[in-house]
Amino acid sequence: MAKFYVQSGTLKAIVDSADAQRAALWAVHQAMQQIAPIEDPSDCDRDCSRIDCVAPSAQPNFISLGDTIMLSEVGFDRDDHVSVDTFEAFREWHALWHALEKLESLM
Fold it and tell me: Three-state SS across 48-98?
């Protein structure tokens, strides 16, 4: 897995991900978890994926994403970052969430 530096709005974090698109989906998931938590709250102490937040004390309690999600394997504030449209990442995240809900209802 590669390490991605993810920036958008108030979010600034480092995440291990297979590719930039999945790192962007992770960013959307973090923002959406505030509104519609998916995971069982009792699992909060488990480390399901390695996430190193940068300066957590500087992070606001509420994640607000910008119009784009900037991803880099080199560092923050890079001119050579990859940009992913936040709305497109949200659409993909929503489709995945909907698919998971359908699978769960079949069990």
Answer: CCCEEECCHHHCCCCCCCCCEEEEECCCCCCCCCEEEEHHHHHHHHHHHHH
What is the chain's Cα-based Rg?
A: 14
Listed as ranges, residues in the chain with pLDDT below 50 are 41-59
> Among 52, 63, 65, which residue's Cα sits nearest to residue 17?
52
Q: Which residues contact 67 (CB under 8 A, 6 or more apart)?
A: 85, 86, 87
Which tokens belong to 61? 């309690």
Furthest CA-CA distance within the chain: 46
- Domain regions of the chain by residue span: 2-106
CA distance 51 to 47: 8
State the pTM of this model: 0.76
The string of pLDDT tens digits covering residues 73-103 is 999 999 999 999 999 999 999 999 999 889 9
Identify the helix (H) or strand (E) that includes residue 29: helix 20-33
Amino acid type, 23? A
